Amino acid sequence: MPHSSGGSRKVHVEEPSAQATIAMLRALKQQYEQHHGLEIQDAALVAAVQLAARYISGCPFPDKAIDLIDEAGATAAKTMMPVGDQEENVITLQSSSKNAVKEAIVCPNHVAQVVSQWTGIPVTVLDQEEKDRLIHLASRLRERVVGQDEAVNLVAQAVLRSRAGFDQPGQPIGSFLFLGSTGVGKTELAKALADQLFDSEKMLVRFDMSEYVDRGSVLRLIGAPPSYKGHEDGGQLTEKIRRRPYSVILFDEVEKADPSVLNLFIQLLDDGVLTDGKGRTVDFKNTIIIMTSNLGAEHLTAGMAGKITMEAARDLVMQQVCVYKRLLL
């Protein structure tokens, strides 16, 4: 017999590819059909892998695809049950599997419904061709944000470039600093972007940075470490993105935040991830990060009034931003 020292060795197992995961689901298909008493379309298996890869982060293959199929089966089974007769229908489904297979089917739409429940992204967005949304993004944003065509076009182009794969992989879809005085449309553009990309303004996560002015603010955003008060609550930022990884994040009046918070944002923009107080990695690659600031707003006001040229106003604003950045670093 081979000798064993009694020790253990860590073996790293690579995450399976999408094709390998589809093959695993096909092998498990009959087991889940019998469990839920219905038929699972092959297209649903493929959709589970595609949607899991696209919309679900923080969990590897094959687990997230298997969980999707299991939950989609439960969702499809519930649609067969009249309200008030669920227990009776469960027995019927399990005891009459042949009839159930003929009557109930798990299709890609059931999978999309589950992804929608988990991520908060409406089913209509999951079903819609992303290409169509991106092509018309600029024009749809201009319908809501009036008088800011240049800013709207730059934002739409940046999102399109990221989705085409030209930006750094792993980083957020886009990151923007909106400068200008109150009422020019900075927040409205953020809302419009959330509505157009994710079909709901509820996908906008807003933080008023005037509430994060001390060094302890970092812990409020990412969560306190073990033994600290509030550890179990998690971070205000990391928990929201962990639950809804597809979001537009708005950091309003970012210049008011403590420098330690801004350094955290620099790390976020560089790496695309943050580690929360519980040691979990939270992925921000499917977010759009927008920071707003009133820095240099007086120069833009002067430009609008014709006291200086708009080109000169923009140069003065950028000089002020650069000075502020040097103070942080």
Key structural traits:
329 residues; alpha/beta; Helicase, Ruva Protein, domain 3; Rossmann fold; 4-stranded parallel sheet; two-stranded parallel ribbon; 10% strand; globular
CATH superfamily of the domain at 164-294: P-loop containing nucleotide triphosphate hydrolases
CATH topology (level 3) name of the domain at 164-294: Rossmann fold
CA-to-CA gap between the ends? 62 Å
Name of the top-level CATH class of the domain at 164-294: Alpha Beta
Secondary structure category: alpha/beta
| Uncertain regions spanning at least 5 consecutive residues | 83-102
**On the 0-100 scale, what is the average pLDDT?**
87
Give the strand order of the largest sheet, numbering strands 1, 2, ... along the chain.
Answer: 3-8-5-4
Largest sheet: 4 strands, parallel
Shape: globular
Number of E-type strands = 8
CATH architecture of the domain at 164-294: 3-Layer(aba) Sandwich
Number of helices: 16
Series of H and E elements: HEHHHHEHHHHHEHEHHEHEEEHH
What is Rg? 25 Å
- Helical coverage, percent range: 40-55%
Question: Per DSSP, what share of the residues sits in E-state strands of 2 or more residues?
Answer: 5-15%
List the helices and strands and how they pair.
Elements: H1 18-36, E1 39-40, H2 42-55, H3 63-79, H4 86-95, H5 97-103, E2 105-106, H6 108-119, H7 123-127, H8 130-135, H9 137-144, H10 149-163, E3 174-179, H11 186-198, E4 204-208, H12 217-222, H13 236-243, E5 247-252, H14 259-271, E6 273-275, E7 281-283, E8 287-293, H15 297-304, H16 310-328
Parallel strand pairs: 1-2, 3-8, 4-5, 5-8
Antiparallel strand pairs: 6-7
